[in-house]
Amino acid sequence: PPFTLYNFVKRGNNQELFTNQLPTATAATFQPTSAANSTFTPGLSDNNSYQFFLTLQYNKTIAKHSFSFLAGAEQSEGNTQQSQVRYTNQLIPGVDQFFAYDINTLVASNLDRTAVSKRSGFARFSYDFDKKYLIEGIARIDASSNFALGNRWGVSPNIGVGWVVSQENFFKNIDALGFINFLKIKANVGVTGDDRVGVRLWQDRFQIDVTNGYIFGTTNGNSLNRSRLANPDITWEKKRTINVGLETSMFNNKLDISIEAFQNYTYDGFELGANNQYPQYFGTQAPVLNYRQLYNWGSEFSIGYKAKLAKDWNLSASMNFSYGNSVTDRILYTAGNLINNTFPNLQLFGTDPRKYNTSNYGLRNLGMFRTQGEVDAWMAKYPNYRVYDRIPQAGWLYYEDTNSDGVISDSDLSPLYNNTNAFLSSGITLNLTYKNFSLNTNINARFGGKIFYDSRARTAPSKTRNTLDIWTDRWTLENPMDGKYPRFDDPSLGINSDFWAVDGTMIRINTMTLSYKAPIEFAKRLGIGGARILLTGNNLWTIVNPLPYKDPYTSSAWDYPMLRTLSLGLSVNL
Fold first, then answer.
1. What is the pLDDT of residues 477-523, one digit of tens each?
2. 64-105: per-residue pLDDT in tens?
3. Residue 417 CB neighbours (<10 A)
4. How far is it, in rounded angstroms, from Cα 422 to Cα 300?
5. Which of 33, 289, 378, 395 is the most buried (most CB within 10 A)?
6. Domain presence at residue 511
7. Is residue 324 part of a domain?
8. CA separation for the pair 158, 403 (Å, rounded)
9. Which of 16-20, 212-216, 319-323 has the least mean pLDDT?
């Protein structure tokens, strides 16, 4: 039905605050759009799948020799079909059903059918001699319908060895090592496969188009359009893993330490960037290739301690640290990018993500003009200096002219730090018990590195947009020397720079649980196996926050804040 639009009176300097008063004249009456332009698009989706899984296991011990063998098979299949049609020209106003539309306007708007299947066989063999020498071998063979015949099967072998040094007689006879209760050295090497890519990319794809097909003269004709080139040679993406480590327990098993180092090499990686090699007038998507290569490596260190503090008081604590990095060794790119000095192109060839990442790309700040005298002195030395085509003013930031053209522009953007990653990331777990009470705390921490104010935090206010209260500490005529942030009209405000970089150290208490376990005698009188009352808090406190205007787990100043939750629960064992 027709409707009338009212525009309420506004007030304020910017005329943006609505009142409850209507103007003397009302707006015109609006009529709804023609029913002939109305559309109705019902759809139908059908999904079915199954999975079959079978395992056989055999264990045997002969004297000091222990054997274990496991074999299994798995098969799965899934089918999905989606269809959608479109009606136009509504004959019965206000009724959103197919019978209310002109049947002669019915067209198919979408039809999609997907069938995937996978078949696997796997085996594991493990052996140890006297709990000192350990060996384990794992092998998988998988077939995926994502690949054509001849490339469908992939093999994933893995072998691991271990040596429990503390079980050796020579180790036990060294008195100086008596504080070590357990010491194990281990190593592992293997290859795994990945088929997580689009289905049936080995087949050509075509799209039937009866409404927007190829143009013949001045009309669109029915068309069979190629939507993607096939790659019949596409096969499994592979990853080789190498891992070496050490595990030890000391001082009557009170102190546990684990150290591991790893290197992963991904090859025959699915390369989705081949479209960059084809001109836009090619008219279809490029094939997906097995081309990308990637290395990533790192180390992990964990330490745990258990102690009896006093009668009925016990403490256990564990902490893990990790370090890692990665390098892209091979990737497809557009040849024209070689001549463009922009960040996406630098990122292609700068293979170290600790340096070549989006946050670490910006202007190199030299300071802030505090007074007009500072501006005049700078302009006397560099008369052609401009910040994004504007003559600098007091209260603006100024930057290094990295390309030496005399002006500051996007051409001066460059990597800012050699490494923005935290030098150490850690998870800490503390558990304190007293009789039937226990308190468990989980802490997450990272130390060092750089993080940057997000772009929304640097957004200037407008008539319809507020800003963060950190901007009360900006440069003003009344406070030119102590303001931390520049003026709102600084033309570089929306450009990233090292001015907006801060130390990335963060310490946060993620969860804390206080629980009470009912005495066994009390539980028996109630006829239950046991009971526990739990009080749990999540997202509790941030002890060190590098960007106090937002939660460290959110990406932007405008994101919905993380919720702090408290829950009370009861666990009963029957």
1. 998 999 999 999 999 999 999 999 999 999 999 999 999 999 988 88
2. 999 999 999 999 999 998 888 888 888 887 777 888 888 888
3. 15
4. 14
5. 395
6. yes
7. no
8. 51
9. 212-216
Distance CA 299, CA 260 (A): 6
What's the structural domain count of the chain?
Answer: 1
- CA dist 272 and 291 (Å) reads 9
- Where would I find the H helices in 58-180? 169-172
Range of the domain at 504: 418-458+498-574
Collapse the DSSP code of 119 into the 3-class scheme (helix H, G, I; strand E, B; otherwise coil) and give the result. strand
CA Rg, the chain, in Å? 33
The helix or strand, by DSSP H or E, that contains position 522, with its residue range, turns out to be helix 520-525
Contact 388, 492 (CB under 8 A): yes
Task: Dig out the tokens for 347 from the structure.
Answer: 């990122």
Q: Is residue 16 part of a domain?
A: no
Highest mean pLDDT range out of 94-108, 195-209, 234-248? 234-248
Two structure tokens written together for 419: 């490494």
The tokens of 186 are what?
A: 């281990």
Is 502 part of any domain? yes
User: How many residues belong to the chain?
Assistant: 574
| Strands, E assignment, 16-106 | 17-18, 29-30, 39-40, 43-62, 65-88
Residue type, 393: Q
Instruction: Quote the tokens at residue 67.
Output: 């054997």
Token readout for 456 is 């929304």
DSSP 248: E
In DSSP terms, 70 is beta-bridged to 57, 124
H-helix segments, 40-97: none
The alpha carbon dihedral of 172, 175, 181, 184 has a sign of: negative
Q: Give the HSE-up count for residue 209: Cα atoms under 13 Å, Cβ half-sphere.
A: 14
Nearest to 6 by CA among 23, 377, 16: 23
Residue 284 tokens, joined: 């279809």
Q: Alpha-carbon distance 479 to 174, whole Å?
A: 71
Alpha-carbon distance of 40 to 48, in angstroms, equals 27
pLDDT greater than 70 at residue 211 = no
Alpha carbons 441 and 427: distance in angstroms, whole number:
11
Question: Is 378 strand, coil or helix?
Answer: helix
pLDDT tier for residue 262 given thresholds of 50, 70 and 90: very high
In whole angstroms, give the CA distance from residue 246 to residue 258. 6
Q: How far is CA 120 from CA 83, 269, 315, 467, in A?
A: 32, 21, 46, 56
Token digits for 339?
């001549």
